[in-house]
Specification:
Elements: H1 4-12, E1 15-25, E2 44-52, H2 55-94, H3 96-113
Antiparallel strand pairs: 1-2
Helix pairs in contact: 2-3
Length: 114
């Protein structure tokens, strides 16, 4: 089975190489704990990767990212709807009069659709 990087390279016809660039960052440290916090500051380095894509493949990647972002938002929205329906169902179960009114509402709605 191919790894994710190999599949990415094949899908986008990309060239992926280790970069000479790296980013230094200071890890989070609670400076209020020590008066000598400056003595403990260290840098961690994130190494970078160079990815070379054609313009067409880059646009394809951006469109794909946009699609999956929208899909993720839709899933969150759908989950909110399901959660709301569960709450409504619980209210109907706990209150028989609400359940009776809801069933009448559904009946009237069905008649209006015909």
């Amino acid at each position: 089975m191919k790894d994710a990087i190999t599949l990415f390279k094949e899908k986008y016809n990309a060239d992926v190489n280790q970069s000479q660039r790296r980013y230094a960052r200071i890890p989070r440290y609670d400076y209020l704990q020590s008066h000598h916090a400056v003595d403990y500051i260290t840098h961690e380095y994130d190494y970078c990767i160079d990815v070379t894509l054609t313009k067409e493949q880059f646009h394809k990647l951006v469109e794909s990212d946009h699609y999956y972002t929208q899909l993720s938002r839709n899933q969150e929205y759908n989950q909110q709807i399901v959660d709301m329906l569960r709450v409504d169902e619980r209210v109907r179960m706990d209150n028989p009069s609400v359940d009776k009114a809801y069933k009448k509402y559904l009946m009237l709605l069905e008649l209006a659709r015909k």
